[in-house]
Amino acid sequence: MTFKLFNLLVQASVWTIGISAISIVIGFILALGLSAALLSARKLYRRPAEFFISFFRGVPLLVQLLLIYNLLPFIGLNVPSIVAAIVGMSLCTAAYQAENLRGGFESVPKGFIEAADMAGLSPRQIFMRIKAPIALRLTFPALVNEAIMILKSSSLVSVVGIVEITRMAQDLASSTYMPIEIFSSAAIIYLAICWIVAMTGKYVERSLPGAVK
Amino acid sequence: MMFDPNVILRHMPEIMSGTAVTLALWITGMLLGVILGFIIATLRRYGSPLLDVPLGLIVEVLRGTPFLIQIFLVYYGGPFIGISLDPIPCGLLGLSIYAAAYYSEIFRAGYQAVPHGHFEAAECLGLSRLQIIRRILLPEMALIVLPPSVNLAVILLKESAVLSIITVPELTTTVSAIGSQEYAFLEAIFLLALIYWFIVEAAARLGRAAEARLSTYRFAAP
């Protein structure tokens, strides 16, 4: 196991981190819409959101990736496999993040909203100043967890041919006959990335208002 | 490309056997994971601190790395240290170890959540050690441990699809093979998604029913 091989794995981690970060962001934006639909009083909005979440939480990510990878060309979208990977991961994490956000919005104390209403805040102000900040604050730890889950799950995009850490490790292992060294190194890189995300998450959480000191 | 339902009927035996392999791997892996996880959590709590540190490290490594990498390490790395396993035993080993790491954390939280006062109260009432474990510790732990365990069970079922990458003849492997054989890959994957969805929903419902049944204990352990 040379430094050069390890370096190749570290370089491939740019793809792991990039795909995960983009998917988390897109997933978060989708989840905002989905959680709004989930909390809606109208079944017309609630049912499709529940259906979407149930499907994407009920099917293995590997199967979702294979489905999207083969579905996009079928409906006439000939996109590179990286796009298929990001679409798949974003939809999957959107479903999980939407459930988290729904829980967060539901845990905003009723009294706060009533008090804001009494103080004469408009529904828009109540949402922007009371509900959204408290819900986002409450769901922040879950968001960090989800980011770590997605980082680990991103190893599955290796099956659609993206040369991130796992795929690079596979290629190197078969060409050098050193699978133990190579896959252990890949594991260490994943551990390091997850650890950095967890530590950053803890640091940010402590600096957020309302943190338990 | 129109879907021909006869394809499914023609390949029903293979689909059934793939489903059987997935279910068998899932249930055995989960049971082994629960047993091993319980042993790890118990050793970490009641064993020597010398044991706690390495066990904690192993659990952290298993929880911080992708399942796929762990599987590759066992499947491709194993033969280099004299452990050559066929895909199915390799998959079962990988799934059990992965499950054990997560279950050990669930049990650790379970141990921590039983209030110390309950043990003291039981001792004052003259219950024996065995009675305390059987009547106080385990029922109260079960209540705390069940919801995350059901969650983990569903995650494990979905992770088992990853074993198709090392050619374990489970559901994903079988159905995608039928797809390429019949030139109907998209339909096959769609069917695959539906089968998983069905099993996951069924498992989640079963878990919720068990939680509802067990929650009668809540009167005793508020």
From TrEMBL, chain A:
**Keyword set, alphabetical order:** Amino-acid transport, Cell membrane, Membrane, Transmembrane, Transmembrane helix, Transport
According to its UniProt record, where is this protein mainly located? Answer: membrane
> What Pfam families does the record tag this protein with?
BPD_transp_1
Q: Which residues cross the membrane?
A: 12-39, 75-96, 182-204
InterPro entries with a match to the protein in the record: AA_ABC_transptr_permease_3TM (IPR010065), ArtM/GltK/GlnP/TcyL/YhdX-like (IPR043429), MetI-like (IPR000515), MetI-like_sf (IPR035906)
Membrane topology, record value: Multi-pass membrane protein
Where is this protein found?
Cell inner membrane; Cell membrane
Q: Does the keyword Transcription regulation apply?
A: no
Annotated ABC transmembrane type-1 domain ranges read 13-201
Q: Which family does it belong to?
A: Belongs to the binding-protein-dependent transport system permease family. HisMQ subfamily.
> Which NCBIfam families is this protein grouped with?
HEQRo_perm_3TM (TIGR01726)
Question: What's the name of the protein?
Answer: Amino acid ABC transporter permease
Species name for this entry? Answer: Rhizobium lemnae
The organism that produces this protein has a lineage beginning with: Bacteria, Pseudomonadati, Pseudomonadota, Alphaproteobacteria, Hyphomicrobiales
TrEMBL record, chain B:
Annotated compartments: Cell inner membrane; Cell membrane
The regions listed as transmembrane in this protein's record are: 20-43, 55-75, 81-103, 183-204
What membrane topology is given?
Multi-pass membrane protein
The record's InterPro entries line, in alphabetical order, gives: AA_ABC_transptr_permease_3TM (IPR010065), ArtM/GltK/GlnP/TcyL/YhdX-like (IPR043429), MetI-like (IPR000515), MetI-like_sf (IPR035906)
Which keywords has UniProt assigned to this entry? Amino-acid transport, Cell membrane, Membrane, Transmembrane, Transmembrane helix, Transport
Superkingdom of the organism of origin: Bacteria
Q: Where does the ABC transmembrane type-1 domain start and stop, copy by copy?
A: 19-204
Q: Which PROSITE patterns match?
A: ABC_TM1
Family per similarity comment: Belongs to the binding-protein-dependent transport system permease family. HisMQ subfamily.
Query: What protein is this chain from?
Result: Amino acid ABC transporter permease
